[in-house]
Design goal:
5 strands, elongated, alpha+beta, 5 helices
């Protein structure tokens, strides 16, 4: 009868829809794992750099934030990888919370966690300081943070901007750790000749 034929057609349509949904889910999850870091769920370096490059080309004010967990090797040696991984995840989720809606957070490698925010440099400094303060308060580690703001229309590439923020982070690291350094405030002697404002 027509009714049973319609029912079987309906059955196949539903089956197809369910399968299609599952395939989409699998594809989405495969895509997600190709652009994120398995441990921290932060975006991986390649995806992060691509997004930063786009933000720089969009002529918005962009500030890079470079965080490195202090004494991470010692933490690994004394507490073991499992505990160290837990700490890494904790700091990563702080970074995600602080940059949500205004930027993007990523894992650059090892214990280096990065972010960029598209907001005025003063706000970006507050975000960086908040990441530092919350890490010190809410976890068993501290972070050294470097910040570098890039003026709209600048010729800097994503890699160059991250390199400047990295230099500022290194300045924090070598000047007592658990602090935020703005690349712009660093003595010229310590800069490598790339200028963020240009």
């Amino acid at each position: 009868s027509i009714a049973s034929e319609l029912l079987s057609i309906l059955y196949y349509i539903l089956l197809f829809m369910l399968l299609f949904e599952r395939v989409v889910e699998l594809l989405m999850s495969a895509y997600r794992s190709s652009i994120t870091d398995g441990l921290t769920n932060l975006y991986n370096r390649r995806y992060f750099t691509g997004r930063l490059e786009r933000a720089l080309r969009a002529n918005k004010p962009v500030t890079a934030i470079f965080c490195d967990i202090d004494n991470f090797k010692r933490l690994n040696d004394t507490h073991g990888h499992h505990r160290a991984d837990g700490v890494l995840k904790q700091v990563a989720s702080l970074l995600m919370e602080e940059t949500e809606g205004i930027g993007l957070a990523g894992r650059y490698g090892g214990e280096e966690l990065v972010a960029f925010v598209t907001c005025p440099p003063t706000v970006a400094m507050q975000v960086a300081e908040s990441i530092r303060a919350r890490t010190a308060k809410e976890s068993i580690v501290t972070v050294s943070v470097g910040v570098c703001a890039c003026a709209p229309g600048s010729r800097l590439s994503a890699e160059q901007l991250m390199s400047l923020a990295d230099q500022a982070m290194y300045h924090s690291k070598t000047n007592g750790k658990n602090r935020v350094t703005d690349y712009a405030d660093m003595p010229d002697v310590q800069k490598d000749g790339l200028h963020a404002g240009q």
